[in-house]
Specification:
CATH class: Alpha Beta
Shape: globular
Number of domains: 1
Number of strands: 10
Number of helices: 8
CATH topology: TIM Barrel
Distance between the termini: 34 Å
Strand content: 15-25%
CATH superfamily: Aldolase class I
Radius of gyration: 18 Å
Length: 294
């Protein structure tokens, strides 16, 4: 069967060859365990139950998890094995189930969630995505996902092409996030300010690209309202082979300008990060040998 899970619509038969995402018909996972470095409403006190999938339908040159882009790192999981891991995350106290870069594996994930729920899983499901997915896939996931955690990376298509090889990124992310909000609404928190349902949009501020951040924020306000929950991320970390403008860290002035843009536009529900977030220290270690940490 040809693959049409993401906007690229490769039409590749993944039983025979790998798609652009690097994935074949197997569900490969590089790490499962508690993760404490998400937004406070996602990590909570105990940590988010993160499942890091291998493979990605973008080619972000600045990705901190770049080793996963090829789709070849980690261990193969059946839906049954993943379901057992999700239940184990619940047993050890995870605040939620956090599916990281999951889109290439949607079919196996849905089956695993069905099995886990039959086995007693009650935790909210977080869909932690690059924002580059189709509205059809959002619709398919609507009965499975409680909390949507999409990136909104670019307004300028030139940046999307140059940094992520992502045709039509802005309109694709805009439509996908719009459909997420239709299904789940704005983010709702419980008494402990832990996320329970809704949408939290992430935007990574890139060095030399604050003009695009302003355009992204303006579009979010225009289309979804300034009561939308945002996470304005300061964690860009230059790669060793990075080229200008991504060969340096974000300056304090650039990030302050991005925060000021949020305030001027009227956003009030915004997570901001300290400068110390820009480090590889918050990137999990991935390997084939130690992929499940439960």
């Amino acid at each position: 069967m040809s693959c049409d899970l993401c906007p690229r619509r490769c039409d590749v038969d993944r039983h025979i060859q790998r798609g652009f995402c690097g994935c074949d018909d197997g569900m490969r996972i590089a790490r499962i365990g508690l993760h404490r470095y998400e937004e406070p409403c996602i990590s909570g006190a105990a940590g988010s139950g993160a499942v890091f999938f291998s493979g990605c339908n973008l080619r972000c040159v600045f990705c901190q998890n770049k080793v996963l882009q090829t789709g070849r790192l980690g261990q193969l999981f059946t839906p049954e094995a993943l379901a057992q891991s999700l239940l184990r995350l619940q047993q050890i106290g995870a605040e939620n189930i956090n599916l990281v870069t999951p889109t290439p594996h949607v079919n196996g994930i849905c089956r695993a969630i069905d099995l886990a729920r039959d086995g007693g899983l009650t935790l909210p499901i977080v869909y932690n995505t690059n924002g580059y997915l189709s509205v059809e896939t959002v619709d398919k996931l609507s009965e499975y996902v409680d909390i949507w955690l999409p990136d909104f990376k670019y307004h300028d298509q030139r940046l999307a092409d140059r940094f992520s090889s992502a045709p039509h990124y802005f309109e694709t992310a805009l439509a996908a996030i719009g459909r997420m909000l239709e299904h789940s609404g704005q983010l709702s928190l419980d008494e402990q300010e832990h996320a329970k349902k809704g949408v939290l949009i992430r935007h990574l501020v890139l060095p030399g690209c604050v003009y695009d951040t302003r355009d992204v924020l303006s579009a979010i306000g225009d289309h979804f309202g300034t009561d939308t929950y945002l996470s304005l991320m300061h964690q860009f970390t230059p790669q060793p082979d990075g080229k200008a403008p991504l060969n340096r860290r974000l300056t304090k002035r650039e990030y302050e300008n991005a925060v000021d843009a949020c305030l001027r536009l009227g956003f009030t529900r915004v997570y901001i990060q300290e400068e110390r977030s820009a480090t590889f220290a918050y990137t999990p270690a991935f390997s084939d040998e130690v992929s499940v940490q439960l």
